[in-house]
Design a protein that fits this description.
By secondary structure, the protein is of the alpha+beta class. The chain is about 45% helix and about 15% strand. It has 2 domains: about 100 residues, no CATH class; about 140 residues, no CATH class. It contains 12 helices and 8 strands. The strands form 2 sheets. It has a 4-stranded antiparallel sheet, sandwiched between helices. A 4-stranded antiparallel sheet has the order 3-2-4-5. Helix 10 packs across helix 11.
């Protein structure tokens, strides 16, 4: 084939037959290699990258076209190289996005176990032989606030919101994670203790009631969003957010297979099931975490079909 392309007149004397043969796709490709490529290389276009876009290397391309003196072959050359250049550019862009997403997402070793296995303790009052009559005891108290005690809508007047005396001296609960919490970036030396007050337990009861009504299959539904309102600095994000995370991680994994914690434009995803079970993935960009969650939802629906 290559010999025919180099000297077609000698091997195909008939002009009509020669034109028909040379117009075949196979011959066009050989003609491109033996006629166009050397001319391109002579003008410094030695790769698809050097070919450039439509507005690049205009003088070199014009010179090759003039030397080639074959509009049909030149059009094919331009078409092939333009397509190859655009494909390479798109692949490079996709690679950068993929690399960016992978670099922005990283597993936090030990974070899942630290939160799931967070240690409980509680503060008691009315202890006569302790400073201020208070002490810290390990574990959960014998009786934590009941649903009836916490599921009370606060009255508008502060004086009416005084907690009823329980008689057991329970003031608040303390939840300690050895590595800290997402709010503190799981950084060594940061705050590890979360103080859980009665109001936070009430928030969990509201969330738990909402999750309980979620379907057990892939039926489409619209979950109820909630906004926690309160004075800045009272522990909405660090305190209540961390406590809700702990409770959701202990909720039925069949209904809540993963929990996402969003913070200042970034996000953590706690995986309870699947190949990533027991791992926490941190995403520098929250959008990447949302994309990952959509993939997880699609995979879950496919698994349930």
């Amino acid at each position: 084939m290559d010999v025919v392309i180099q000297r077609p007149e000698r091997f195909i004397p008939d002009a009509d037959l020669r034109e028909m043969v040379l117009s075949l796709p196979e011959c066009q490709t050989y003609a491109l290699v033996y006629r166009a490529v050397p001319l391109l290389e002579g003008k410094g276009i030695t790769s698809v990258r050097r070919w450039g876009g439509a507005d690049e290397n205009a003088d070199a391309k014009r010179a090759v076209r003039d030397e080639l003196a074959d509009d049909g072959l030149w059009n094919k050359t331009c078409g092939l190289l333009d397509d190859a250049f655009n494909a390479a550019k798109d692949a490079e862009a996709s690679g950068k996005v993929g690399k960016s997403d992978s670099e922005a997402a990283k597993v936090i070793p030990g974070a899942f176990e630290s939160v799931v296995n967070a240690r409980w303790s509680h503060v008691l009052s009315g202890v006569a032989d302790k400073p201020l009559g208070m002490c810290v005891a390990d574990g959960l108290p014998t009786s934590v606030w009941s649903d009836a005690e916490v599921d009370v809508t606060p009255a508008p007047e502060p004086a009416e919101n005084v907690d009823d005396a329980r008689g057991d001296g329970l003031e608040l609960l303390v939840l300690t994670s050895a590595m800290g919490w997402p709010y503190t970036g799981f950084k060594h030396g940061e705050e590890r203790d979360v103080f859980v007050r009665r109001e936070m337990v009430r928030v969990w009861h509201v969330v738990r009631s909402e999750v309980a009504r979620w379907p057990d299959d892939d039926t489409m539904f619209r979950p109820q969003p909630y906004v926690l309102v309160g004075t800045p600095g009272i522990g909405k994000s660090f305190g209540c957010g961390s406590y809700l995370l702990y409770e959701l991680l202990h909720y039925d994994a069949a209904k809540v297979p993963a929990v996402a914690y969003f913070l200042d434009g970034s996000a953590y995803i706690f995986h309870k099931t699947g190949v990533m079970a027991g791992r926490v993935v941190f995403y520098e960009v929250a959008r990447a975490a949302i994309t990952a969650m959509r993939h997880m939802a699609n995979e879950r629906r496919e698994a349930l079909v």
